[in-house]
Amino acid sequence: MGKGDGDRVVRCERGHLHWGRYGAAGLLPVSDGHVLLQHRAWWTMGGGTWGTFGGARDSHEDAVTAALRETAEESTLDPGLVSPLGILREDHGGWAYDTVIATVERTPPVGPASGETEDAAWVPVGEVHLRPLFGPFAKAWPRVREHLRRPVLVVDCANVMGSRPDGWWRDRRGAATRLRDALAGLGDVPGLGGFDVAFPEVVLVVEGQARGVESVAGVRVVSAEGSGDDTIAELARGGARTVVTADRGLRARCQEAGAEVVGPRWLLDRVAY
C-alpha cells in the first residue's frame, strides 16, 4: 500500500459518503491575522466555494503529512514555511477529517498548482465568514477560529521536581536540567488547549538554585527573578495556556487568569523523567 491508496469514496457510520479510505486532512495556515484559503475549482465538490487545501490520507500518512502533501499538490505554498499548532478532528465514525492548523512566519504569495484550485488568498480572520464557504468548512469554522494560536504549556519546575522524592534537593539545577531535557521530547499532546492533538510551546519556569538553566530546542526556560509563582501566574494570562502545578494557591491564580491547570502526574505520565 502506498501513494494514492486512500483515494476512494467510503460511507461513514452516519451513512454519509466521504472521499478518503483512511480519512482526510486539510491545512489551514495562519499568519498575521490572516488564514490561507483555497478557492475550489468549479468542477470539484463544492466548486466555487472557499475552504482549506486538503484531501484523502494514504495508509502510511499521519494527518500533518497528508495535509502538507495535499497543500503542496494544490498550491505553491512552500511546506517548509509551515509549523503545525494542532489538529482539530471531525469524527463521523469510521471516517474523520483532520484540520491541521499551522503558522507561517509571513504571508507569501500563493497561487494554484493544480486544476483543483481556482485561486488562493490570505483572508483576514474577521472576513472569512463573508466568503462563500465550502459547507463542511463553514460548519467547522466557529470552532476552528477559536484555535488559531499555539497552545502554551507552562511547567512549574519546583513543584514538578518536588512531586518525586528522588534526591532532587541535592542538585536543584541538575534536576531542573533533567526535567528540561525530558520536556524537549514531549512531542504532540492529545487534548491540550482544546485541540484534539496539540503541538505546544513548552515553557519551564525555574527559580532559586535552579536559575541559570538554559533554553533548548523545544523548551523555553524562564528564570524567575523573584517568586516563581508570580512569574507562572503572569504567564498563565493570554489564552490557550495550560499550567502544570499541584500548588493549590497557584492553581487558583492561574484558573482566575483563564488558564487550564493539570497536576505533575499528568506530565510525568507523558515524559521520560
UniProtKB/TrEMBL annotation:
Cofactors named for this entry: Mg(2+)
PROSITE patterns, alphabetized: NUDIX, NUDIX_BOX
Keywords (A to Z) from UniProt: Hydrolase
Segments forming domain Nudix hydrolase: 20-145
GO molecular function: hydrolase activity
Signal peptide: none
Pfam families assigned to the protein according to its UniProt record, in alphabetical order: NUDIX
Full protein name: NTP pyrophosphohydrolase
Organism: Actinokineospora fastidiosa
Organism classification: Bacteria, Bacillati, Actinomycetota, Actinomycetes, Pseudonocardiales
